[in-house]
Amino acid sequence: MDVTHLPFAHKSTIGASGVAEQAVAKTERDGDRVRITRFMENIAPAPAHVAVTGYSDNVDRWQVIEYAPPGFVWLQVGSSKAGTGGREADPENMLLDRHTLHLAMPETDNTTLYLWVMANKADGLTSEQEDAIYDASVLAFNEDIVIIEGQQDRWNEEISKVDVGADAGALEVRRLVDRLIAEETENRKLKAV
Ligand SMILES: [Fe+2]
Q1: Which pLDDT band holds residue 20 (cuts at 50, 70, 90)?
Q2: What is the Å distance from ligand 1's center to 9 Cα?
Q3: Which of 2, 21, 22, 109 is the most exposed place for a label (fewest CB within 10 A)?
Q4: Is residue 1, in this structure, part of any structural domain at all?
Q5: How much distance in Å is there from the Cα of 73 to the middle of ligand 1?
């Protein structure tokens, strides 16, 4: 739910300066959904995006991250030439307009399977561009694995945690999951009576 790590963890692929500090971000809860919307205007393009689109001038970039219980995250991400309308840009100014679905599936008490799939409009990318994005994504996920496994190794309930602004979406998700667990537990108790 937090994509502010991109410029730090994924410098060579999907990270770009401006993603962390230049975003206008909003976190919303809509029933059992949590949505984070981030718009970054006139920022440098990410290296992997330059490689795919051939466009190296500044871009308007967006990331819409939507969580649905129990473990689905739908990412709508893309970029257009800076100043051409962002998500509403005309096709000739649109650079990337992509959707990915991420599924977290608990495996054991401290391991989780992570499944993902990417999609784009049928005529949105050539097969070479799709392959290039897929390869960059695999590289970025492998960078994530190092960080996530390092966090898991250090995780300890006794250590105090510090929440920062970028955690707003993750905190909403935790509150939502806690509420759903409490409701499910209560329903089971009522059924058992
Ligand atoms: Fe990552």
Answers
A1: confident
A2: 7
A3: 109
A4: no
A5: 13
